[in-house]
Design brief:
43 helices; nine-stranded antiparallel beta sheet; four-stranded mixed beta sheet
Length: 932
């Protein structure tokens, strides 16, 4: 799907004078006449100033309203930004005229040697609806009268509610600061004359070019690229984040700004179109630059108008509205918002392509160090003769082509060039990439069926070097989506949910990268089991292909795991996989979610859970592959999604299943692992006596030892040690986890059926959103429950105070000092925009456990959901044996292992129907507050 197919039909705009005239946007002449008439009528100075402020404020509001109406009629982003800049220009002229006529007239009628210049985005003649303006008041020298004019104008702007960044400097001060401060240098680079002494401004501009820009531009380039790297690190390292920052994210407007700043500094161009004459861009690339800039400005203006402020993040709750304003409708199985975001990410990719063109030119100009393919890949000197034989060469560490017909003569070279990059650890020259892009039509059915092309691609995919890096290069050049059309369908496809942080193609490429790093033993500490077993996997090729394909069928009406089977069975033989390897890939694609689901949403201490999972997996080889695939898949979802707890659950499930599949005696194996876990803890509690540790260890059931990670075991031991003599009140422990963005609340109290509901209610009353929970009961009747709540404050001190309030509420409820219902009611009913529609579902199963009835509840998460669910379960006289609380973005997926009050399963059909009906009411609009 191309950008043209994705984009709605909108009028396109070139960078030109705005359709509205300056007088239509802000009638400065009329304001001047009105003020002059008021002055002539005898209005005193203070009254005249107030009158001028009111007049200008009204004209400002009317002008912005006209600019907004014009924008909403056409969606021309650059025209809107230009109109808003014109309004500010006219406003500043009006203020200057008023100040120099009525407040600070120049002595002896001589004009001031003062310049008002626009800098920043305003200096480029573009202004977003909610953005501030940056001004430079340029003086000939130390000029107190000029400073008074500048000060008077600033007070006017502030009275008008303007957000102004400003500086007042002489020409000499500008140049001195520009030498040492790259921010000042950048501001002067794009300073635009608005009014005042034109000769003074030209003098500053010429001296800046002569004294500042005359030397080697390498320092400036390095500073701007370093700023870009730091900005991208803050906004998110990928240009495919599903909630991008239109201004700051990789592929956003600031990247285009940086590109132009550097080009302007190095190549002395004035306008973007001059980049063509400078030989930096082809005409096609300049048109692409303009299209990207127009699209991003279009989105940014809609975002600002929609939010009523300078909001730059295209968050989930505004994406639908912006898509609707831009005219994106549902089509081809994609919702309008998904088509809009796909278009957005394709634009971000194009911005990346333009940046690569600039960086290559800078290397040629020796203004930037040469690029490398990947920091982990050792640079191997390519065999020049072998490369020349197929039409390639290497120049300054980049692959070049011998002639423009290298791809037309042999289309397999469109794959081979990336294979060479991978095998030799060298980057691809942007000129080569340009030729690849122009030759994409050569990737047809014949090339897709070519054995050599498929062999080379499979070598890239399964490379031990940098498969993620090279596959990303192929994707950004458009080769990957054309050679593997099924992949092309998910390029730039966002998943409209809060769980996945990246587009589908970016997620798959990151998963491949995770797999390669795991195989290279770079994450032994984070993934000890996966790192140990990956070298023993026999079907390595099948694992890599399955990783590449596991989400490739997303965006279709059919379940992507099922639709992916057909993709795998069609593609694998084409890539040269055997029939057995093909079936392995198809099985992994179909079942790639089952291990994560079982680990996080099933009771791993229940024998039936392990038997059911083992029956699905069937072989040890599949189990190994599934564990590795699951680890890499979860890590590729987004930052902070993987954590040690999930790793512990997966390892427990793996070991339990391995014993069953190997035909061993599971209880013996489990006992061995329990003893090993005890020994690890004993080693960390060196100051405990053997007798004390044995007494403590006897308090826990086997499931605890198998599922809880070592750091929490240590903390629990110290907490539970306080309860051996007496337990006058619940023991509470609060820990912050800034990396995961959660706070852990551990509660130790005498177990009773409503404890889970009480803690959930206390969290609800405190506005704390529970996203996970670990529920255990000790052998001496104590509940040991840990709840993970979304972080409410950035500072640990504030977050710990919030945790203490929750803990105090739990204590007071358990002591009977306050009623939970009153505490919850006092919170009030939170309201908000419902961004996602997640159907509510309740399933009740008696086959998943030998002892318990398993109730699965899923639907849209919201504050108070867990409290509502557990209150209903308590009201239905159900005992909760274990609870498995999971949140996947906006979707809550909670599982409860329950019995009736006699300890029996729920067999009655009518009772099941009642449970299901009652639980579904938890997702109805609440009459009380909620917190999950």
């Amino acid at each position: 799907m191309t950008m043209t197919e994705l984009a709605p039909i909108l009028r396109t705009s070139a960078r030109r004078a705005p359709a509205l005239t300056a007088a239509q946007l802000f009638d400065r002449a009329e304001i001047s006449r009105t003020i002059a008439a008021a002055h002539a009528a005898g209005m005193n100075r203070d009254e005249l100033r107030k009158h001028a402020v009111d007049l200008i404020r009204g004209a400002l509001q009317e002008g912005r309203a006209r600019a907004r109406a014009a924008f909403e009629a056409t969606s021309e982003g650059l025209a809107c930004a230009g109109n808003l800049a014109v309004i500010e220009d006219e406003l500043i002229h009006a203020l200057y005229d008023f100040v120099t006529t009525y407040l600070c007239p120049p002595p002896q009628g001589k004009p001031y040697r003062l310049v008002v210049a626009a800098v920043g985005g305003y200096g480029r003649g573009t202004l977003a609806p909610g953005s501030d303006i940056d001004l430079l008041f340029l003086l000939a020298d130390k000029d107190e009268l000029g400073e008074r004019v500048a000060e008077a104008m600033l007070y006017f702007l502030w009275d008008l509610g303007q957000k102004v960044g400003h500086s007042t400097r002489s020409v000499g001060e500008c140049l001195r600061q520009a030498k040492s401060d790259m921010t000042v240098r950048t501001a002067l680079l794009e300073a635009r004359f608005v009014l005042g002494d034109g000769a003074l401004f030209e003098d500053m501009r010429q001296r800046f070019a002569r004294d500042i820009m005359h030397g080697n531009p390498r320092d400036f380039v390095a500073a701007k690229l370093a700023e870009r790297d730091a900005r991208i690190a803050r906004a998110g390292s990928s240009r495919y984040l599903v909630e991008p920052n239109v201004k700051e994210s990789k592929g956003g407007l600031r990247d285009l700004n940086t590109l132009f700043w550097i080009a302007k500094y190095v190549y002395r161009v004035r306008e973007a179109v001059d980049l063509v004459d400078a030989g930096l861009f082809s005409k096609r690339e300049y048109r692409l630059f303009h299209r990207c800039e127009e699209f991003l400005w279009r989105v940014r203006c809609h975002l600002h108008f929609l939010m009523g402020r300078a909001e730059e993040v295209l968050s989930f709750d505004v994406q639908r509205a912006v898509a609707a304003r831009l005219g994106y409708a549902s089509r081809g199985g994609l919702a309008g918002v998904e088509r809009f975001m796909k278009h957005y990410f394709l634009v971000a990719k194009d911005v990346g392509d333009l940046t690569a063109v600039l960086c290559a030119a800078l290397e040629e100009n020796q203004a930037k160090p040469a690029a490398v393919l990947d920091r982990f890949t050792a640079l191997v000197q390519p065999h020049g003769r072998d490369l020349r034989r197929v039409g390639f060469g290497v120049e300054k560490g980049r692959i070049t082509v011998a002639g423009p017909d290298v791809f037309r003569r042999d289309p397999v070279n469109l794959i081979r060039v990336f294979w060479i990059a991978d095998r030799n650890g060298v980057a691809i020259h942007p000129d080569t990439k340009r030729l690849v892009i122009t030759a994409l039509k050569l990737i047809d059915a014949k090339l897709r069926a070519d054995p050599e092309a498929n062999r080379l691609f499979l070598d890239i995919l399964t490379s031990r070097n940098s498969p993620e890096v090279v596959l990303r290069l192929m994707n950004e050049a458009g080769v990957l989506g054309r050679f593997i059309p099924e992949f092309g369908r998910i390029v730039a496809l966002m998943q409209f949910n809060m769980y996945h942080h990246y587009t589908v193609d970016e997620h798959l490429l990151r998963a491949i990268g995770n797999l390669a790093e795991l195989e290279a033993q770079r994450h032994r500490e984070d993934h000890p089991l996966a790192s140990v077993i990956i070298p023993s996997i026999e079907k390595r090729t099948a694992l890599y292909v399955a990783m590449f394909l596991h989400d490739i069928a997303k965006g279709r009406t059919e379940d992507h795991s099922l639709a992916g089977i057909a993709v795998a069975r069609e593609l694998c033989p084409r890539l040269g996989l055997s029939a057995a390897e093909t079936e392995t890939v198809a099985w992994l694609v179909e079942n790639h979610l089952i291990m994560s689901d079982a680990a996080q949403r099933r009771d791993l201490g229940d024998r039936r859970t392990i038997e059911t999972f083992a029956a699905r997996v069937q072989t040890l080889e599949r189990l190994k592959m599934l564990l590795v695939l699951t680890v890499c898949d979860i890590e590729a979802v987004g930052p902070g999604v993987w954590n040690g707890w999930k790793g512990e659950l997966l390892r427990t499930l793996y070991w339990e299943t391995e014993v069953v599949l190997a035909g061993g005696h599971s209880m013996r194996e489990r006992s061995w692992r329990v003893e090993r876990a005890k020994a690890e803890l004993r080693d960390k509690l060196a100051d405990w006596s053997d007798l004390d540790f044995e007494a403590y260890a006897a308090r826990h059931q086997q499931a605890y030892w198998l599922r809880v990670d070592l750091p929490r075991k240590i903390r629990h031991a110290k907490l539970l040690n306080r309860t051996e003599i007496e337990l006058p009140a619940p023991v509470m422990d609060i820990q912050t986890d800034a990396f995961r963005g959660v706070t852990e609340l551990t509660v130790i109290a005498p177990d009773h059926p409503r404890l889970l509901s009480i803690v959930a209610g206390a969290c609800a009353a405190s506005g704390a959103n529970i996203v996970d929970a670990q529920i255990y009961t000790t052998n001496d009747g104590l509940a040991l429950d840990t709840f993970f709540v979304s972080r409410g404050f950035d500072r640990d001190e504030d977050e710990l105070r919030r945790g203490e309030r929750i803990a105090l509420a739990v204590e007071r409820i358990l002591r009977g000092e306050i009623r939970l219902s009153e505490l919850v009611a006092a919170r009030g009913n939170p309201t908000g925009i419902v961004t996602f529609d997640v159907p509510a579902e309740v399933s009740i199963d008696n086959d998943l456990s030998n002892k318990f009835t398993v109730i699965e509840v899923s639907g849209r998460d919201r504050p108070g959901l867990l409290y509502a669910i557990t209150t209903i379960l308590s009201g239905l006289n159900l005992n909760i044996g274990s609870a498995h609380i999971a949140t996947f973005g906006e979707r809550a997926a909670d599982v409860f292992y329950v019995t009736d009050l006699t300890g029996a399963k729920i067999d009655s059909a009518s009772r099941k129907a009642t449970i299901r009906q009652k639980l579904l009411t938890a997702f109805e609009p609440p009459s009380r507050p909620r917190a999950h």
